[in-house]
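User: Fold this; tokens only.

Assistant: Input:
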Amino acid sequence: MEGLMNAVHYVTSDLRTPGQIRVEGIGANAAAYTKGCTTVRLRSPNDEAFSMQFEVYIIPTITTMTPACKVDSSAWDHFSGLQLADPTFGTPAKIDLLIGADIWPALHPPRKCIGDQQLDKLLQRFWQVEDTGPVDELSVDPCERNFIGTVRRTASGRYSVQIPFLQNAPVLGDSYQAARRQFFHLERKLAGDPELRNKYIMFMQEYIALGHMSPVKDDCVDRTQCNYIPHHAVTADVKEMFRQVEINPLHRKWQRILWRESPVAPLRSFELATVTYGMTNSPYNAIRSLRQCAVDNYNIVEDENRASTARKSILDGFYVDDYLESFDSLVESVSCAHDVDAILRQGQFILGKWNSNCAKALDAITDPEKSGSHIVLYDSNATVLGLHWNPLSDELFFKVSIADSHTLPTKRSILSDVARLYDPIGILAPVVVLAKMFIQTLWRKDLNWDTPLPAELQDQWLEFRNGLRELARVRVPRWLSMSPHAFCTLHGFCDASSKAYPAVIYVNSVTQGSNSNMALVTAKTKVAPVKEITIPRLELCAAHLLVVTLRHVQKALRLDNVPYTLWSDSTIVLHWIRKQPSVLKQFVGNRIAYIQAHTKVECWRHIRSEYNPSDYASRGITPTGLLHHPLWWTGPPCRYICIQDDPVVPELTEEQLQAQTLECQPFRTLVTIRQDHHELLTTSAYGQRIPLVERFSILSRVLNTTVLLRRFLPCYKGQRSNIVTAEEYEWALLVTVKQA
């Protein structure tokens, strides 16, 4: 620091304040004494608006020459073009100024590390109670409006779409430098793996040869008016469907990448001409174009019934680029597959990788000229929407890849393990809910993400983790025994504990001869909120979740007209369902209104807890226990769920009556006498007196204004706080009602 003072001639007595302070940990010696203090003003060579002044102490030396030797940075291409704070950082030089932690934040804009915060928010979704407020189902999605207004067909039949943008979206900024750094990183990675490099180059060459990307001829000067996408070494083109949809040429500038085959070649900009996997809008544009293809081209099938069937099959049977459908006969499956394929080919969507549990159907679909004996099904492992499927046995099964770990478990590692339990249908719900409960326990302990767990929690988690391998033994029939000749009914079960609440759906199929089969369809679980709520309310949340799940099942399996029965072991919830929502408090009333709007009250029945399969999903069971649990896999025996014409709901106990009373709205009887000479609270406008209740259109504003006026009365002068009390609000409401 003293060298800096000498260099700028800040050694005069009017600029240096004398004083000695012992300083340790700085300089060549164990301790040093300051030679006074002064004021320094920092300015930026790049930002003229930046200026900062602070007080510093002067010592002989801060440290030795830094760096110790010259660093040659000319080979570091990723620094090329960057604006560095110290362009000569590789040349040894003196350190003139040491800035403390109190000054450093002011030199850099605050940047929040939001990774763990985002994880925290995602975790909280495990136990957040659903909002049952009204939803405007008539509103049109902005993406849908954009698609309808901009979609076009090319000469080849492909669909051309535009990228939907948010209204009032901020400027993207310069994405070129980030993409450039990522490309250099990719290039170094490929240099160390020649095989991967050759595959990647071939992949990019194919992309160019197919016309899926083209070089940019006139690079824009303003890089905020284009977007560069960093790309990574992924050679498997698992999203072939995306590349069949073109991007409008006007919007291709938002899909630019950097590419060169050799490090000695110039780095060039390319524009991607098709929907690009990895962008937020890509799944929507690809799926919506495929659905539009079904609507536009289904009439190429001559038979009207077959055309309608194929159109509906496309609209309902696709999940992104996976087509799933089930048929009752070989002829029907083959004809529909051919019709679907013909319709989608009009939009250049080519179906491939067919699979079936029937060799004859698979043979006829893939090559109609071959006989059924040419294809033999093996005990293979196909994947369906992330689930594993054995076409030979027609069963779903699970693979849990939990590697042996020699490190202590942390909240982060546990969340990583839980994420591997991919179970979109909910077949493993009683096991998965245990993992969710454990994560909430860690949340309550307020543990850091990378802090090892306490000993008792470690033992609890490791015991659960080691048992997850047992899930590989689970086998679930894909077919639910539903056929045109079977009488099918849906049965839903719900329950709640202090820790979680689930909803489980089964389908019961009765064929000729009274043969009955009950099969598990799906299950959903929610962990109870961190803020404790009463068991009756949790039971109601379970009933609400059951209705939501039932509607999804009815739509997905096209069972809107199939009879259903909903079962709960909560007597108080069954009594609530038979009440008017208006007489119940808001939390209960909103959910009861939803339940009554989407289900029939007479379809709700009572079941004893020991016969309720959802009871196990509310408390959780181990993987080993799940394997040998017939109540979960097949539901209760038919004799326990026989349908009565007049469902009987058990009477409420004294304790349940009290709980129900607490959830009812208090009844008020207001008797008033209106007199003509009654003085009204009024305000003036344009020389006229207007009643206060007519001045506002929002009740809360009327009440707040009335309370403020009341406080000016002599007897209420002491109540001048910023908070409106419940008593004041009640008084204002009564006054307003009297004047209405």
